[in-house]
Give the backbone structure.
Amino acid sequence: MKLAKQWLLNAREVMDKLEKTQMDNIEKAANIMADSIECGRWVHTFGCGHSTLPIEEMYPRIGGFVGFHPIIELPLS
């Protein structure tokens, strides 16, 4: 099997397992974040090293969704 196809198969297996075992927790977390934003509070996110990448994507930009407060500590990288 080609490596790209094997990688996709492995990724699907991981996502399927997450869906089967963590969906309730994902929905609970989403509701907590939505409630916080609805009340005018922030959802604080944290990342250092390569884990800053998803945090940076949540940063409110022009036309973006406001409600997330990214905390990025590059010195910890």
Summary: The mean pLDDT is 91.
